[in-house]
Amino acid sequence: MNTKQIDYVLEIAKTKNFNRAAENLFISQPALSYQIKLVENEIGFLIFERSVRGTLLTPAGEQFCTTLRNIRGELKLAVEQGQNLSSRYKSNISIGLPMRSAIYFLSEAIVKFETEHDGISVTPHFLPLSDPSSFLKGEEDILFSMEVDVKRISDIKIHKLFESKIYLITEKSDTLAQKKIIELEDLKGRTLMVGGGSPPELRLVQQRVIETLNIPYFNSNDYETTLTNVAAHKGVCLAPGFLNNHYDEFAWTPFNCPETISCVLCTHASEQNKNVYALVKLLQKTYIEHSDFAV
């Protein structure tokens, strides 16, 4: 099956009408029907059923079209990325991270790196936190991670980036937002959001606060849910500084505790591209200069 045939199938699935699809595709209806017959012969099942009610997707056809839409979207993205690279760059370094704030100074580093390394592009890939699977399959050259998630993985090199301190997230109108640093006792009488895939260091701090102050806590499935609950006045939250999106919606106040969360960059053990290591060193230098950055 070629890309035109994919477009033909998806257009019919959208319009539920061969004649209308043919008009939209600027081909004749018999030609469109012939192409769909070729596709169905190739894949071995019917995609569409024609009836008095019009053109309907078969159950197999419905699932098939869902997959085709994903394929078409990925292909479109691949073409666009190729166009971007071919026009300006001769090489590319991809770096995986869960959100922009995780490596807040990445954009600053990209500007400097691409100025010093003519023809080399740096492309961010946004991936789920604590999921290195695409990196391990070789889809990224560099991966941002919490050290606890990757320290037992073989065939990678770990490069220290920064130690992320722990902060209290509150609404900006909260009285605690006026403090320069939050002490454990300041949380007395509050409800604490916990869960959401917290790393071990953060869970330790959460547990200490709950047990010492005997305060209520509220389980929250993920970080975005936690922020929503904070905004809904359900409680406050402790979080690592690298999650701070800098959108100024919430107050991030340092929490007085010895625990920090080690954030690292990973490269493949077999990596021989000197430019990959040059970018890692530039990012390390950037974070040495900026230190902690969540405030």
- By DSSP (H or I, 4+ residues per run), the number of helices equals 10
* Major sheet attributes: 5 strands, mixed
Question: Helix fraction?
Answer: 40-55%
Number of separate strands: 12
Oligomer: single chain
Task: State the end-to-end CA separation.
Answer: 53 Å
Mean pLDDT: 90
- Which regions contain 5 or more consecutive residues with pLDDT less than 50? none
> What radius of gyration results from the CA coordinates?
26 Å
Strand order of the largest sheet: 4-3-5-12-6
Strand content is 15-25%
Order of helices and strands: HHHEEHEHEHEHEEEHEHEEEH
Structural class: alpha/beta
Overall shape: it is: extended
Write the layout of secondary structure elements.
Layout: H1 3-15, H2 18-25, H3 29-43, E1 48-51, E2 54-57, H4 59-88, E3 91-97, H5 106-116, E4 120-126, H6 133-136, E5 142-146, H7 147-150, E6 156-164, E7 166-171, E8 192-195, H8 200-213, E9 217-220, H9 223-231, E10 236-240, E11 250-254, E12 261-268, H10 274-290
Parallel strand pairs: 3-4, 3-5, 8-9, 8-10
Antiparallel strand pairs: 1-2, 5-12, 6-12, 7-10, 7-11
